[in-house]
Amino acid sequence: MKHPLLQLGLTLLLLQSVFSAEILVEAESFREKGGWAVDQQFMDVMGSPFLLAHGLGIPVADAVTSMTVPADGVYHVRVRTRNWVPGPWTAPGRFRVSVNGTSLHPEFGTVDGWSWQDGGTVSLKAGQARIALHDSTGFDGRCDALYFTTENTAPPDDTAAMRRWRNSLRGLSGKPASGGSFDLVIVGGGIAGCAAALAAGEAGLRTALIHDRPVLGGNASGEVRVHTIGITANADAILRKINTKHWPNGSSEALLDDKKRHASMAAAKGVSLLLNWRAYDVAMNGKRIAAVYAEHIETGETRAFTAPVFVDSTGDGWIGFWAGAEFRTGREAAGEFGEAWDERGELWSPEKPDNRVMGASLLWNAKPLKEASSFPDVPWALPVAKGKTAVSGDWQYEYSANDLDQITDAEAIRDHILRAIYGSFANAKAQPKYAQHRLEFVGYVLGKRESRRLMGDYIYTFNDAKEGRDFPDTVAEEKREIDVHYQRQYKDAAFPYDFISEAMFMKVPRYRIPFRTLYSRNIGNLMMAGRCFSCSHIGLGGPRVMNTTGQMGVAVGYAAGICKKYSVLPRGVYEQHLDELLRLTRRSADTAETNVSAAVQAPDDPTARTVDQFTVKELPDALRTAIRVAAVRGDYGHPAAGFSVKTRVPVTAYLAVHDRGGYTPPAPWKITDMTLDWSKGKDRVYRASFPAGSIDVPPHSGRNDAKQYGIPHLLFLMSDREEPVTVDIVGVK
């Protein structure tokens, strides 16, 4: 007979095991996300999407959900989170967790690095329990998951082990369900990926477009807000459906182009849009991809998408990386491809290869309100921002370093720029003239420029652009300068801000991109479009902009159609069916541009200071009824374009001239007492009279101390007769 005390102990152990329970709640799956945003950018590194409290210094609305409690008990709580700015200050990303209305004792987001922060214990009854995340600061607190267990056990921290553990608790098998079989699977819904899908749709393919955000467009989307530049060339009919007007970077006008893009993609024949799906691996059949595995960033559901051909337009080259495609990162030695530029030296191309690349940016802006507003103290941001004072930031808010990787260190890079932004704005708010300013937009989705470059049968280099080389397999072309960025501190160690970049421009002739740069040299059924195409670091400098990468997308979309038509792989298109691909993509180099270089504006049209850019605040009364002619902004590193027009009646003309560099137009233009204010500058207004015929508007050759030239002049025309003004644009020079 067993001893009574021993029998009692066995009974207690049995009861403990019977009532052992554990519950995992993924933050990204919360039913109501309030003001929290799902951030999936770093899940390949830290293991999961998470919720981000990106409130620009104002606490966001609570995220709320419910969970099913299997049994009464005392539950130990752990929350996976991080203090994103460790240091001698209060953590900026703090938040609280409440269960059934009772706040857990610790404040979360206070432990360095991604980890399971101890949340103490909570008594729960079987049934439904309400959970809320309450943001304390508005400064990018982050919550990955909440774990409740009746046993005081810690979840795994290793990324692979944690994935298996999480899938087990969520009832997900390690094998993804079928997501369908397609003629083409494209991963990455930026401009290049969208263009590829539209071209594939034209070719009659069943296409899956997998994209890890709710918004298409990549850097052009309303989440990043970079306008598209470059020429559209032969791809204009497709690209005009998905690219942007030339609004200022960071502008809310990006949201209008989002609507246009989504409508175009939703109407595309044969294209299945899979938004909020993040690719995480591939299945291989020898040296070919058999399937792409993707996970829904909110539900955690996984699927396998199969096709005979795949396109990597992820930017970071993820599909190629998982497939074992050859790739490059960093800068090549100047001697490898003969890419030196003596005037720029190491800034352009180093003597020895290194890990420096063009960095990532976050755009941001603040707007003045009617009343003064406050901004919290941000001591954790000032070590980065230092004395920088600003109320907006364009592409120059960029960060890279030789010891940072744009993929594995992406969260640290993003957070560094956020500190720069918040600190710069805090410095501005300390000045009375900015008392009424309030942050309006700060990006949190990184606008990347460069990371992995997947190698094809041809590596595009600086010399291909510099010499304007043509290729037998040209499928895209560009005429913009080669444009390579570097951090100011790399040039001048005494420069105080490590988050500010500069650009180097080299004017080159029209250049062309061969199809051989758009398919992998060692993965038979993989093509690529976008900044991960086959090129050197300097070779990327010109074609990396979105209209050009969109041309690449169109080319690979058409190529996929040829692959299906003839049962060939991408290399087979080049070797056996190139003429057919060229018929779809080629255009003569001297064909007139479809991009608008100058435009006529009617008096009742919205007044843009240049074509689709810079809003004029208010027109002088004398100019309200005038016909206007505006030119494109162009590159600020060169004199702004002049243009010629022809009128059929005599006119009185007014010329709005950007007040930069002391520039004054030549005779017959004479200064008036009128001025013109626009979103980023001010103009002086000049007057002249002209008979019917041609009017030549000169270029703007004035520049400031930063060597930035003024924007093109804005021409106003008023008839000297009762007949209305009719005007034709003759040319841009």
Keyphrases for this structure?
733 residues, alpha+beta, FAD/NAD(P)-binding domain, 41 strands, 19% helix
How does this model look, in words?
The structure is a single chain. By secondary structure, this protein is of the alpha+beta class. The protein folds into four domains: about 150 residues, Galactose-binding domain-like (Jelly Rolls, Sandwich), CATH 2.60.120; about 240 residues, FAD/NAD(P)-binding domain; about 80 residues, no CATH class; about 140 residues, no CATH class. About 20% of the residues lie in helices and about 30% in strands. It is built from 15 helices and 41 strands. The strands form eleven sheets. Strands 31-34-40-36-38-37-33-32 form an eight-stranded antiparallel beta sheet, with no helix packed on it. α4 runs parallel beside α13 and α13 runs antiparallel to α15. The longest helix is centred in the C-terminal third of the chain and has 21 residues. It is globular.
CATH class of the largest domain: Alpha Beta
CATH superfamily of the largest domain: FAD/NAD(P)-binding domain
- The DSSP helix count reads 15
Which structural category fits the helices and strands?
A: alpha+beta
Quickly give the CATH architecture of the largest domain: 3-Layer(bba) Sandwich
Largest sheet: 8 strands, antiparallel
CATH fold title of the largest domain: FAD/NAD(P)-binding domain
> How big a fraction of the residues is strand?
25-35%
What Rg, in angstroms, do the CA atoms define? Answer: 29 Å
Average per-residue pLDDT, rounded, comes to 93
N→C terminal distance: 105 Å
Helix content: 10-25%
Q: What is the count of β-strands? A: 41
Shape: globular
- Strands in their spatial order, largest beta sheet: 31-34-40-36-38-37-33-32
Low-confidence stretches: 1-18, 587-596
> How many discrete structural domains?
4
